[in-house]
Design brief:
This protein has about 425 residues and is an alpha/beta fold. The chain contains 16 helices and eleven strands.
Length: about 425
């Protein structure tokens, strides 16, 4: 009975304060609320939902028009995202003739996460916007993630060869340690994490050597690219080494890496630079407002609030009641359109669905002024691997006003439209 009364109290609060979301112009309320933040974090409840991507794009366009946004940072690997960055900035070494061509850099599963029609439209818009600005003021597109061990090592070697750097021999010696594993990160993780035969010392030593040169304070996009690939390689080695052991360590390595990259990007773009982040809700919503904290896990949302203070950050969560999503039934499985069933009874998405009567809505949170919403709700999270038959395991206990600063609820959603890449056939 107490739980029912709490939910009814929450429902009344939502009815009073929900903002109808019928058109892109309605998003201006969220943009206005985020205007003083240096970092705006835009989430998603899945990696395969069209409306999450298009809504983030609309918010981002409005932020670019009203703030000193210098770059967009996403939950993607540095090398692949840097190919897109070259296209949107029209850098000298760009070879892509279109956004679709640039997005083909996302060639590893789950490539649809970024190589999709929704992203194609946004990337073309960003390039068009940038071409109307001076080269030094164009908005970048960068990746924060940590999976690119082999690709990053190759980029580092290529750069050191091109610049005839004295560090080339050091890099070749460091990366020679990885040769027995080919491009097999799982094999390396088992060897390094369980047997103790890894390349940690070599990777860290190279990173320190690179940081001691001018690359530690990059002055150009090429130097930034080299430094970020070096950081990605060192942290990827750490990630794969911890991944096979289980527990929270690999998750924490990954999210701490994302924040390190973010801080480096902000330093590179100057003290007044502002940025937009696109990542899953599980990364951008403060972990301390969920059961992640009890499991010893941190995330980007928590770490940036701790480092930059809450007043300098603004995080927006996303959710849906039902619809369809693009995902795989297992890691590496063929991508398919899956049904997202109606939210389970008593969840956050179920509450919004009942209150909204099938309408989309926006919510601005204030934990102190909305005590009713501090109740713990299950909040749906769908990854690149999804099983609609196991819905109960897809909900994260959350105190919503502590986890986010705002929330976008889209009652019925649709699957992304992937680009036609070979591995999707």
């Amino acid at each position: 009975m107490e739980q029912l009364l709490q939910s009814e109290s929450s429902a009344r609060r939502i009815r009073r304060e929900a903002i109808p979301y019928h058109s892109p112009e309605d998003l201006n309320r969220v943009v206005e609320a985020a205007k003083d933040a240096r970092l705006v974090l835009l989430g998603e409840a899945s990696h395969g939902t069209s409306e999450f991507y298009t809504t983030r794009a609309e918010i981002t366009k409005r932020l670019i028009a009203s703030k000193a946004i210098r770059f967009i940072a996403v939950e993607g690997d540095w090398p692949s995202c840097y190919e897109v960055n070259k296209y949107v900035k029209d850098l000298e070494d760009n070879e892509a003739k279109s956004a679709a061509e640039a997005l083909r850099a996302f060639h590893r599963w789950p490539s649809w996460m970024w190589a999709n029609r929704e992203m194609e439209a946004f990337i073309e818009w960003l390039r068009s916007y940038n071409l109307g600005r001076p080269a030094g003021e164009r908005i970048g597109f960068y990746g924060l993630d940590v999976y690119s061990l082999w690709e990053s090592m190759q980029h580092i070697v290529d750069y050191l060869k091109q610049t005839e750097s004295p560090l080339l021999d050091t890099a070749l010696q460091a990366f020679g340690c990885f040769e027995p594993y080919g491009d097999d990160s799982q094999s390396y993780g088992i060897s390094a994490g369980l047997i103790g035969e890894g390349c940690e010392e070599e990777s860290v030593a190279l990173l320190h050597e690179m940081q001691r040169t001018r690359l530690g304070h990059p002055q150009s996009e090429a130097e930034l690219n080299a430094m970020m690939n070096t950081m990605a390689a060192a942290d990827a080695e750490h990630y794969y080494r911890t991944m096979v052991r289980g527990g929270p360590d690999s998750w924490n390595v990954r999210d701490r890496h994302m924040v390190r990259v973010l801080r480096q990007l902000l330093d590179y773009h100057g003290p007044d630079a502002q940025a937009v982040l696109w990542e899953h809700n599980t990364h951008i919503g403060d972990a301390r407002a969920t059961d992640m904290a009890a499991d010893g896990m941190v995330n980007v949302g928590q770490l940036v609030r701790e480092y930059y203070r809450p007043a300098q950050t603004f995080s927006v969560g996303f959710g849906t009641h039902h619809g369809h999503v693009l995902a795989g039934s297992a890691w590496g499985a063929p991508v398919e359109v899956m049904e997202v069933p109606a939210a389970i009874r008593g969840s956050w998405e179920d509450l919004l669905g009942r209150v909204g009567g099938g309408e989309n809505m926006l919510l601005l949170f204030d934990a102190d002024a909305q005590p009713e919403l501090r109740e713990v709700f299950g909040h749906r999270a769908i990854g690149v691997v999804y099983d609609p038959g196991y819905e109960l395991g897809n909900y994260v206990p959350s105190r919503m006003p502590m986890r986010y600063d705002a929330f976008v609820f889209i009652h019925e959603t649709h699957a992304l439209e992937p680009l036609a890449l070979p591995q999707m056939v």
